[in-house]
Amino acid sequence: MKSNKKKFNQDDYRANSHDGTSKGYTEEISRTVEALEMVYRCSANYVSSSFTRVGLEILPLLLGIINKELCCLKDSSSSEQCEDVNTEEDVRPKRTTSDSTLDSTMSGSEKKSQKETFYVSNQNTSSPNLLRKCTKIIGHFARVGSATETMAYHPDLLSTLKNIIDSQSDFVPSEARLNSLWIIANLACNTENMVMMACTPGLMDTLVKQCRFNDDKRLKHPESFSDYIHLIRAQSIAARAMLNLSWAPENKIPMFEVDNLVDSLITMLLTRTSEWGGRGHGVSTFLLQSRRHASGALRNLAAAPRRNKFHLCKHGNGSLLNSLLDAARNDPDTSVKTRVLATLHNLTCADSAEILISEPGLLDLLSELATANETTGNTEDELGTLAFRTLRTMEKAASSDMSCHDSLQKVLNEVSATRNSTVLKPVKTESSAE
Questions:
Q1: Is pLDDT at 98 greater than 70 in this prediction?
Q2: How far is CA 114 from CA 10, 77, 89, 302, 423, in A?
Q3: Stretch 36-61: mean pLDDT, rounded?
Q4: What are 95-98's contacts with CB under 8 Å, separation 24+?
Q5: Where is the composition biased (Low complexity) (predicted)?
Q6: By CB neighbour count within 10 A (0-12 exposed, 13-18 middle, 19+ buried), where does 236 fall?
Q7: Torsions phi, psi of 371, nearest 5?
Q8: Neighbouring C-beta atoms of residue 321, cutoff 10 Å
Q9: How far apart are the C-alpha atoms of 430 and 434, rounded to whole Å?
Q10: 26 phi/psi in degrees, rounded to 5
Q11: Residue 377 in 3-state DSSP?
């Protein structure tokens, strides 16, 4: 009995000693990474020079730390779940050796001590601060345009960032998730990375998931305002990443085929207010950013081959066209309206002309915008020019035997007569890419 108890005390000491050493190492690494992150808050030129010299050595180390921390956090979460499920008598597996005899003869305090030691020795030491700072350092590197191609093609970077974003929100710091999304969005600015990133397994699905939090029952009603702010910030950054990736011509068809991607963009385009609004902290700003990115991504996707234009017009039994009309009429932001009109212009072709012309309210909307009298600055001129160009493009794409051709011609004649009587400044129209 005494020998067994002595053995247990020795195991207890070794477990606590090992755990203390691990915590010491973790704290030392955490402080080193924190100091390094402060250093990289310098200008982009200095960060570029540093990345050229040591970036390829530092990046694998940071990714190794991140992956280790993710494993530790997941193991810790699993241990906590075990503790919640099991009763005190079932903490340790039942055995038929002398250990079971020891368990039956120990007092209650000894059982409690054994239970605590069991969990201490089986929990890995982790520091959420490491995830924050490591992703922040990689984010500093991603500020450097010349480094983004090298970073994106690193064999472990995108998969590691994806793992952070996909991890459960209850044990991965929100800042680390936002940093990871921001890095992906910046890497997607490089034209050399766009096709590769869009083809990375699961990456587009991860971005879409961040944009569809309104469809998740658990996230539809966040428990706190800070949770909601994190969600709309993540949504805005993910939308920016999709906007950047949609610029590449090779990505337009594959992205259109990603499940729920277009629906996600539609949802963001129509989300103008929130029950959490009016509390400051930039709620309206984040929602506006999401709408701008979503409308820009739709504009880019619409600049696709004729077959895709047709399918986009038919998407969701016309839900895309309905949403574009709603945004063009009701969105308070001129930039969003401009991108929406550019989307309608890009959608116009011989295959889609009849669908667009027959869409209830579309010709009236374009006519109204093309003949608007307000000319504050160049914004109304630009909207009017885009609307008029879209009508002209429809005229060229529509054949005379279409049932809607006469309606289009009537609207064009009225618009042309009004515009000819008003001097409008020529403006640079928006292309299909930013």
A1: no
A2: 12, 20, 11, 64, 87
A3: 96
A4: 98/4
A5: 98-108
A6: buried
A7: -115, 15
A8: 24
A9: 9
A10: -60, -45
A11: coil
> Closest Cα to residue 280, out of 335, 221, 222, 226?
226
What amino acid occupies position 289? Q
- Tokens representing residue 72 in the block: 């530790």
Side-chain-side CA neighbours of residue 133 (13 Å): 20
User: Residue 183 is inside which H or E element, if any?
Assistant: helix 174-187
- Alpha-carbon gap, residue 115 to 117, rounded angstroms: 5
Please report which helix (H) or strand (E) contains residue 227, including its range: helix 225-245
The CB density around residue 296, as the number of other CB atoms within 10 Å, is: 29
C-alpha 387/C-alpha 177 separation (Å) is 40
CB atoms within 10 A of CB 154: 16
**Coarse DSSP helix, strand, coil percentages of the chain, rounded to the nearest 5 percent:** 75, 0, 25
Percent of the chain with pLDDT over 70: 74
Which DSSP letter does residue 348 get? -
pLDDT at 404: 87
Residue 393 CB contacts under 8 Å (≥ 6 apart), including other chains? 345, 348
> What single string gives the DSSP state of each residue in 190-224?
SHHHHHHHHTSTTHHHHHHHHH-GGG-HHHHS-SS
Q: How far apart are CA 275 and CA 273, in angstroms?
A: 7
Task: Name the phi and psi angles at 154, rounded to 5.
Answer: -65, 130
- Which two structure tokens, joined as six digits, stand for 143? 């500020």
Distance separating alpha carbons of residues 331 and 269, to the nearest angstrom: 9
- Full-prediction pTM beyond 0.85? no
Whether the pLDDT of residue 104 is over 50: the answer is no
343, 298 contact by CB (below 8 A): yes
